[in-house]
Fold this protein.
Amino acid sequence: MELLDGQLASRAIKDALAIQVAQLKTEGKKVPHLAAVLVGNNGASETYVGAKVKACAEIGYKSTLLRLESDISENRLLNIIEELNDDPDVDGILVQLPLPKHISDEKVINAIHPSKDVDGFHPENVGRMVQGLPTFVPATPYGIMLLLEHYKIDTRGKHAIVVGRSNIVGRPMSILLSGNTNPGNCTVTICHSHTHNLKELCLQGDIIVAALGKPEFVTASMVKKGAVIIDVGITRVPDASKKSGFALKGDVNFKEVAPLASYITPVPGGVGPMTIAALMKNTFRACKERNDS
Amino acid sequence: MELLDGQLASRAIKDALAIQVAQLKTEGKKVPHLAAVLVGNNGASETYVGAKVKACAEIGYKSTLLRLESDISENRLLNIIEELNDDPDVDGILVQLPLPKHISDEKVINAIHPSKDVDGFHPENVGRMVQGLPTFVPATPYGIMLLLEHYKIDTRGKHAIVVGRSNIVGRPMSILLSGNTNPGNCTVTICHSHTHNLKELCLQGDIIVAALGKPEFVTASMVKKGAVIIDVGITRVPDASKKSGFALKGDVNFKEVAPLASYITPVPGGVGPMTIAALMKNTFRACKERNDS
C-alpha cells in the first residue's frame, strides 16, 4: 500500500506556482489576486478560508479576505460580488459555502463572472467542463485529478466507482474520470442514496472515490484487493480525547481498508490539501488569462 | 416484451403542445417560432431538419428554415446567429450539425443566446442541467426521458448502462438518469471506447442506453432478461433491396435482443421521433418564457 500524500503533492504544485509567480514579478506583471468572501463565522468555513489565504501568502499571491456579518442581505452580498467582478485587480473570487439560509447559493454563485469563478461552480464553467473545454474545474475534483497525475496512477480503462453525486464533488468527479483525458478514460459508475447494491458495485472498483459524507462508511468488505481509494469525506466527529473536542473522519475506514488498497488517501492530509492546490492553480490561470488578454 | 413506441409517445406530446398553442392563439399571444439553420446539403441533415420543420407545422408553431451555402464563412454565419438572437419574434434557434469543417461548431453553438438555445448545447445550459436547474435539455436525452416517463418505466435505483460518452447523447444521458428526478435516480455506469469489460457491464444493466453509433453492436449475449433497451443509434447501411439504397440500423441487434427485453425501442420509430418531440417542448418553453418576461 502506498499513501497518496496530499501534503506532498500539493507542496510540489505550490512550489511550481511560486516559481511562476516569481517569474511574473521579474517580468513586471501583476501577480494573482484571490478575493475570498466569508459570511458569518462557521468554524469549518473559518478553517478552510484560513488555509486558502495562507496558501496565497506562501506562493506569493495577493489575497483579500472579506468578512461579512451573517445577517448581511442577499442584495448587499450580490453588490459586493459585482464590485469584485468589476475590480481589475481581482483575478479570482471565492465565496465560502455554505451561506446563511436567507441567501441563495445559486444566485450568489451565478453572480460571479465566469472568468473569475475559480471555484468552477458557475453553470457556464460546469458546462465547459462537461464538454471538455478549457475552464475552471471545481477545486476538489480537480485536486483529485492532480493527485492521480502526481502519483502517475494508470486510470485508462479502469472501473471507477464514485459514491456520491453532489454538484461539488461526486458529479464533476464522475464526469472528469470518464472524460477522454489522462488521468481519465475510466469506466465510471456513479452511486448515490438510491443505489441498491453498493457493496457489490464497490467490489468491482479499480478506483473508489468516496464522497458521501458518512464517516468510515467504506469498509474492507466493500473493497477489492489492489484498489485505489480516494477519500473525500471529512466529518468532525466528537472525540473527548482531542483538545479540540473532535476528530476528523473520512468516508473510508482507513485502518481496515488500507491493507487492501494499492493506493489510499489519508484523512486529513489527502484530498484536503489538494483542493487548495487546485484552487491556487485555478487562480493562477485566471490571472494569466487576464494578463494575456 | 413491449415496444417503446416513439411515434405514439411523440404524437401524444405533440398533441398536448398543439392544444397549448391553440390556447396561446385564443389569448392573442405569440406562438412559438423556431428558426432552423442548415448549412450545405448533407442528406441526413436535410431529413432531420425537414422533420423538425414539419413538426412545427403540425403543432401550429411558426418556423423559419435558413438554407446557407456550404462555403459560407464562419463570420457570416455568426452574424446570422446574432441577428436571430436579436430578433424578438424568434424563440428558438437550431443549427443543424455537423457544420462544414472550416466552421467551428463550438463557436457557433456558443454564439446562440442561452435563452434561445433549444438544442441545449450552450455550456451555460449544459451546466444548468448538471446542477439540476431549469434549462433546455438536449433533445435526444430529453426525448428518452420523456419516453421513459410516457411508459411509466420505474427507473429509481435501477442500474443503467450508458454506452457512449458523446456531448449530445451519452454524457447528458448519464447525468439525467443519475439525477434526483423521476425518471432518474438510477445508478449509472458510463462506458466508452476504453471500457474493457463492456459485455459483463451490459449484463448488469436493468436499463441499457446504446449510443455508440455501431450498427447492431449490442447482441443477445450482452443483455440480461427483462432489461429495458434504449437504442439511440441510427446508421445508414447500404442495402440494395431498398429503393433509397440504404437501410437504417440501430446500435442494438433488435431481432436477437427484443425477446429478452421487457421494453425496447425500435429503429426507426423509437428515439428519433422523441428527439423531435423534445425539441418542440423546448421551443414551447422558450416561447413561454419570452411571453411571460
Chain A has ten helices and eleven strands.
